[in-house]
Amino acid sequence: MSFHLIAQNNSNVLLIEIDKTIENNTYYTQKKEHEITQLKAFLKHTTSLEQKYDITRKLYNDYQSYQSDSALVYARNNFQLAKNLNEPEKLNQAKLNLVAIMGTLGMYKEGLDVLNAINITSTPNLKGSFYGMTRVLYGQMADNASSQQEKEKYLLLSKQYRDSCVTFYPTNSVEYIIAKADWYLDHAKQNETLDLLLPFFSKIHQNDPNRAIISYIISQAYKQKKDRKLEKKWLSISALSDLQLAKKEYISLRSLAFLLYEEGDIERAYTYIKRSLDDAVLCNARLRTYEISKMLPIISESYQKQNETNRFQLVLFLISAGILVLILLALLLLLSKQMKKLSTAKKDLSFANAKLSELNDELNTFNEKLNLSNNTLTEANFLKEIYIGRYMDQCSDYLGKLDEYQRKLNVLATTGKIKDLVSAVKSKEYIENELKDFYTNFDRTFLQLFPNFIRDFNTLLISEETIQLKEGEQLNTELRIFALIRLGIKDSAKIAVFLRYSISTIYNYRSQLKNKSAGPREEFEEKVMRIGTSNK
Q1: What DSSP element (H or E) covers 461?
Q2: How far apart are CA 75 and CA 101, in angstroms?
Q3: What angle do CA 517, 520, 521 make, to 5 degrees?
Q4: DSSP 370
Q5: Which of 182, 312, 483, 492 has the maximum number of C-beta atoms within 10 A of its C-beta?
Q6: In this predicted structure, what is the pLDDT of residue 395?
């Protein structure tokens, strides 16, 4: 998240993240306490002096910017363990740690005494740290000096030791980078400072305590360049790192608070300075507490004035709102009377509309029934016309065929061909041929009236039970039964006479096809009746 935020030009994004971090202070504190508790557990269960030295040093580092008193305890324990180990480098490192925490606690004389007792020639690789620690201690003494003369004296010493530590720090170390950047700033070389620190910052791990220090120095470079926007951005990054690492001794949030105060963001400035003071008191960082205590009254006074202004505006708003409420109540009373009159009129109108709607519904229902009756009547008349015409043609044709058949029988009788006459009278071939012609004529006529009957009929059946006609067939027995039903002949007895089948056979055919229906069985024949109409 922080790496992403660095890329943002809008400092408000960072300020919002700082606000959230302050709100979630408990989370970061618990995380810090958990790490410390684990180290204490390791220390309790180890008997090795080497391991105890390493653990007490880690505990000192964890407490250094968190709780100064506890850090001092573990710095002294670490120093005692280093004496017992009798290793010069560890002993001198423990002394330097002791000096660092003494400086935080304002124990400047004690810190100088420890520094003067260090034989740095025995550990040449700690010379950079020795001069760096001396530089920091004199810097703290300058910040806390009671007179300008003392302040200038200690500042001069701090700069001299800074120049010395640059000489002895490894050039790729973070300590060298910080000291060198400080030298650049002291000589107003802002661009060189940024060229040194900006590439280095991108390599610093999220949880590195030096991240806040580097970003703070970058902010000071932009401050010298009078680029307030970037100064604010890098102060925010530094403060965010301090807060997320649960540091209690820091400078960035305090500086950011004063910058926000100057910009007029009083509420946020007050929140930040108060948090800085609370953390400094908890850490027992006396110099930070002193520095913050000088700024707090200024910001607090502005905060109180803003609150008073806000209260006045709130009172003014409440009075205005009260007047508006009274006006609204009067308007509501007038409106209520008008609404009652309107409500009565609406009820009358609603009653009339309901009656009219009821009449319209009845009229629509009547029209639908009338249209259905008209459609049914039209269809019935059309069917009657077709079938009457076909019936007259068929009757005329049958009369001609009967006359021809009579003459044929008469010839057989007059010529004495009695045997052939009897055979002709007994034969069913003539009747079967006529029935075949009759059904063929019926099928052709029906399909002229309902050309899509077979297709529509199959859509009413489940897909695997559709009717497939043999080659040359127009309708089969099953289709003829439902063709007659479609024509309005629903009586199984009449259908049986028409098709020359028994009533039970017709009933079985109807039942079987109903069972194959794709929809409800009882609606099958009703759907057949709608084939060929607009109400399918």
Answers
A1: none
A2: 8
A3: 60
A4: H
A5: 483
A6: 57
